[in-house]
């Protein structure tokens, strides 16, 4: 990429539009960018970076800060760069956001940031992302890579020269994107820690299971279990011990189960005997209770028999009650008919009321409709002639508008004519001044010409002698010899006066022609205006026509407004007439419909009245033949009679059931009494004391053995679970320890934690390859700059095994064969070393960026610390960079460089504010 032309407007210290034509510097060689401090030398590089990438080269400058403080309010801020790549020209233009003067009105407004990119074929991109991608696609590098390749800033790379391994690692990580290896190191470190934590956590789990192991104190294995709980027993031996405990408890559990079964069998025999004894005692007690119950139930049966006889007599009344109820039920249909007729009379009365109300409403509505119909007919008769004047009014309006338009055009023409006359007077004044000046210049020239000629004649006259011929006229007689003037002009003054006179004559002629042209334009305009005045107003002077035109325009405006109102009124009448032609027939139809509705409602009212009379007569006839007022009263009486009959019936049935129940229970009790007597006679006598004593002894044996079994089972479950979990955890720990060992080994290798070796991390190891290539490229320049004395070398030994190393830098002194730290170099030597390292880094970045080559580079300052010989060596190294088609720009104010470098871009401050650029080749 080669910059061809850079244009900066109101950018940084450059107040106006400043053009830097790089094409004048040629295609190769070294050129110098010099100037006062703060004049804007580095700003040239800033502008190139901003044009390409939209940002400054420095971190502290935002695009919004680019607006020049020296710029005039109406000067735009922008940067435009024309550059060549692969023999094709591209143009990129950008402007930052800034406050600019408003195009109209007072004050300022925000100018938004904008950009454009033009291809060789004329295609233009205007979106920021499109421009950004186009620059990267063509040049092939990002802004950061461009800054590292195209600008060699001595101050920054001096830090790289003397940086520690940790600092240099950060720099190379940023440049060569080795952060993925740094991320891998961190990930391995984290995973190693996590793997160790998992192993420790698994071990803690085993400790928890060991604490759950149970062992009786009398067991010989109790000492080993105690050792395991104190973490003093190997896992293999612990597992074997625990397996033995589990097997012992299984055998104990089987033996105890067998003993408990034998005790339970003996208890079953004892319980059988006790069951028989319990049944004998129960039967004896039950016989006493049954005999007493028979006596009590016999008394209840006698009482129940008396109640049954009483209820039987009352039950005989139920027949008469059911008969009376049946007679009333037979009359119920007539009560239903009475209710139907009562509801019917209510409905008919309601219908009559509604129809009478509707009839009155219809009659009132009919009266209103008739009134509206008559009013509409009357209104229609007044609109018979509607619309007859509309076309006439429209015609008058069009004529008025046309005349008004012509008058307004005439008014504009008159204003234009006035402006032309004013311009003509101004130009005439200019012509008069120019003519007077031309006359004065001509007179001055004639005067000086005459004086000059007289001077020439005086010079010739001094050479005349009597009887000698005159070189002008040939006469040998010289009666009146010309005298030499003391104030005669020189030939150059005469030429100047002549040129001044000719220029003044030309200016006067131009002014005269311009006046003639304007005068012709004024006369044409006047003739057209007078012609229009004649047509529109009549005979009137052009100078007094303006007031008349304004008056006529005002009158026409008022007339047009009036005509618009009249036209609108006519159109409303036409519209209303059309509406009435539809409304009137509709109203007439509605009137007829109302009349028909009224007739229908009148017939309905008469019908409802007749129905009411007939229904009333039927109701009176039914009421006179019935015993009760309504069906509800009759149904209540039926319910009362039947309820009483049912009560008597139920009381009789209850008495009968009670008597039968007593009789049945007595029979059952007597049967049970006989059964119990036979059971007691056949039962053997059993010694209850001996049986109970034996049962208590057996229960005690069973309880003791059951508790022992429960203890064994609990211990067995706990130890079996602990054994299984410890086995699983042991297998898990083996796998986790293998993985932790592998990951920790990788972590120690990647993070440089191998005992007895230098702490070289994986990222550092990768960076060492880049760093070696940088040093190799840097030494090609450093050997030249140092006259073969110095060579850079990466340190091979670590000063401290506890500190991360691998990127330390030493210098070999070939004059004495020593190797020492680069920090021991002097100021000038450090500059040459840092410049060489920077150039080496630039070469390596270009190579790693896909072979990208920039045809223009910049080196910023640092040459002031060099002596003459060192300066020669640095210049020779930089000249090596210009091989092929490459330009190297040195930004410096060192005077010796001004004498050594012919091609220069000189930046200087202007007294009026701002800076300017001059190219010297």
Descriptive overview:
The chain is an alpha+beta fold. Among the domains are: 2-140 and 855-920, P-loop containing nucleotide triphosphate hydrolases (Rossmann fold, 3-Layer(aba) Sandwich); 164-176 and 759-851, Rossmann fold, CATH 3.40.50.300; 178-310 and 656-751, no CATH class. The chain has helices at 41-53, 128-139, 143-150, 154-162, 165-176, 179-211, 222-229, 235-314, 318-330, 332-382, 390-461, 491-536, 545-625, 631-682, 688-750, 762-785, 827-848, 868-881, 895-900, and strands at residues 2-11, 14-21, 29-35, 78-85, 88-95, 98-101, 108-111, 114-118, 124-125, 151-153, 790-794, 809-813, 818-821, 856-860, 887-891, 904-909, 915-920. The protein has a 6-stranded antiparallel sheet with strand order 2-1-4-5-8-9, with helices on one face. β8 (114-118) and β9 (124-125) form a beta hairpin. α4 (154-162) packs across α17. It is flat. The model has no long low-confidence stretch (mean pLDDT 81).
Summarize the model shown.
The chain is an alpha+beta fold and 921 residues long. Among the domains are: 2-140 and 855-920, Rossmann fold (3-Layer(aba) Sandwich), CATH 3.40.50; 164-176 and 759-851, P-loop containing nucleotide triphosphate hydrolases (Rossmann fold, 3-Layer(aba) Sandwich); 178-310 and 656-751, no CATH class. The protein contains 19 helices and 17 strands.
Describe the SSE topology:
Blueprint: E1 2-11, E2 14-21, E3 29-35, H1 41-53, E4 78-85, E5 88-95, E6 98-101, E7 108-111, E8 114-118, E9 124-125, H2 128-139, H3 143-150, E10 151-153, H4 154-162, H5 165-176, H6 179-211, H7 222-229, H8 235-314, H9 318-330, H10 332-382, H11 390-461, H12 491-536, H13 545-625, H14 631-682, H15 688-750, H16 762-785, E11 790-794, E12 809-813, E13 818-821, H17 827-848, E14 856-860, H18 868-881, E15 887-891, H19 895-900, E16 904-909, E17 915-920
Parallel strand pairs: 3-15, 3-16, 10-14, 14-15
Antiparallel strand pairs: 1-2, 1-4, 4-5, 5-8, 6-7, 8-9, 11-12, 12-13, 16-17
Helix pairs in contact: 3-17, 4-17, 5-16, 6-15, 8-14, 8-15, 9-14, 10-13, 11-12, 11-13, 16-17, 16-18
